[in-house]
Amino acid sequence: MSPFDAAAALVVMAALLGYLNHRFIGLQQTIGLTVMGALASLAVVGADALVPGAGLGRAVREFLAGIDFHDALLNGMLSFLLFAGALHVDLGSLLKRKAAVFVMATAGVLLSTVIVAAGFKLASGLLGLELPFVWCLVFGALISPTDPVAVLGILKTAKVPPSLEAKVAGESLFNDGVGVVVFSILLAAALGAEEFSLAHAAELFAVEALGGALFGLVVGWIVYRAMKAIDEHNLEVLLTLALVMGGYALAQQIHVSGPVAMAVAGLLIGNHGTRFAMSERTREHVTRFWSLLDEVLNAVLFLLIGLEVIAIALDAGHLLLGALAIAIVLAARAAAVGLPLALLSRLTPFTRGAYPILVWGGLRGGISIALALSLPEGAIKATVLTATYVVVVFSVVVQGATVGLLAKRVVAGAE
Questions:
Q1: Alpha-carbon span 15 to 47, nearest angstrom
Q2: Which residues contact 202 (CB under 8 A, 6 or more apart)?
Q3: 358 falls within a domain
């Protein structure tokens, strides 16, 4: 199947299932597509069990393998989704809480990684699926960052207070880039590709994450200046598209974090760019273009998340470990958010009720699954991938569906 055929099949499925959900079910779009994609895959598994000769499961697996979820998301869709999400984040509100966002996106991710690893090591041992601790750290690194795509998609309908929305969105935009860097370091250590050392890890982290932020600021500023010099909405939309595609590709070539770069560039264009470099007509076209692209890619991404259920181990042991992982990840999130909030409470203002929303609204999504799918084949991958998938589906479906209700209670309690 050619890339065009695969893309066409996904868009057709997303449109069809999205229509059915909107017309007859009424779930929030990302939740609906995830659930329906998972149910479709489970139906295929069931059909394979009833009619072994049909080969439906094999056909779906070959289709998904041809897409390469990891490559499609991390080297394709993610740059567009991060930039589109960052365009709508209020930089002023984010800067007021920059200390909290920075600490949660760095130290919070590292703390969560260690806590998840310890809990996962214990849980896997109790179930007879014990993993080496370094692989538990790899799982902790890929599951600890909140997913900006999932978080921003849910925040659109959750009615979270603006000050808190800036903090949740800002953290999610940056901690995925940090998480990918930490994951890469730990995976190399787990595979024995290089000897682990804190000094080397810190150096690589600084180059990737801080270098990505600086690179995003530079390329964003270049495009900002170019847009300020003209007033042609079609060309300015093209400039933003060139920024995302060219900037992300160049970031990968010079080995800095592309996700962090696109988040920074999107914040610059979405705030200073829309205020000082665009006419009203251009601002409207740029906003509509990226909103539409964001909706289409989100639909395809969450459908893919649902479909990937066919790739996991469906035996009782692995599924039970996944269920335990949900509690472990939530506990780690509670600690990784609570400690920074406690340390910074005297230095930065916090919205009343921020803690429960930051914990429950820290959704996991496609990035975690993409990283898990990139692991080398074997029993360890099967265990980690199944646990990752269970946590992500719970996060998107259960947490995503209820964070809006939690936000309403927080707002009502603050009034």
A1: 24
A2: none
A3: yes
pLDDT tens figures, 388-406? 999 999 999 999 888 888 8
Statement: the pTM of the whole predicted model exceeds 0.85: yes
Domain for residue 357, yes or no?
yes
349 three-state secondary structure? coil
Q: How far is CA 345 from CA 104, 267, 351, in A?
A: 13, 25, 11
Which pair of tokens denotes residue 196? 């682990």
* Lookup result for tokens 């509100």: 93
Name which of 356, 338, 333, 341 is nearest 409 in CA terms. Answer: 356
Compute the average pLDDT of residues 25-40.
Answer: 90
Confirm whether 394 is domain-assigned: yes
Q: Which residues contact 225 (CB under 8 A, 6 or more apart)?
A: 277
Structural tokens at position 100: 């909290």
Cβ(140)–Cβ(116) below 8 Å: yes
- Identify the CATH number of the domain in which residue 320 sits: 1.20.1530.20
Domain count, the chain: 1
The answer to the question of residue 17 being in a domain is no
Task: Render 64-111 in DSSP notation, one character per residue.
Answer: HHHH-HHHHIIIIIHHHHHHHHHTTS-HHHHHHTHHHHHHHHTHHHHH
Please spell the DSSP secondary structure of 164-198, one letter per residue.
Answer: HHHHHHHHHHHHHHHHHHHHHHHHHHHHTSS---H
Q: What is the widest separation between alpha-carbon atoms in the chain?
A: 65
State pLDDT tens for residues 186-232: 998 898 866 666 777 778 778 888 899 999 999 999 999 999 999 99
Tell the burial category of 115 from Cβ atoms under 10 Å away from its Cβ (0-12, 13-18, 19+): buried
Range of the domain at 133: 70-414
Judge contact between 314 and 42, C-beta under 8 A. Answer: no
Do 80 and 294 form a contact (C-beta atoms < 8 A)? yes
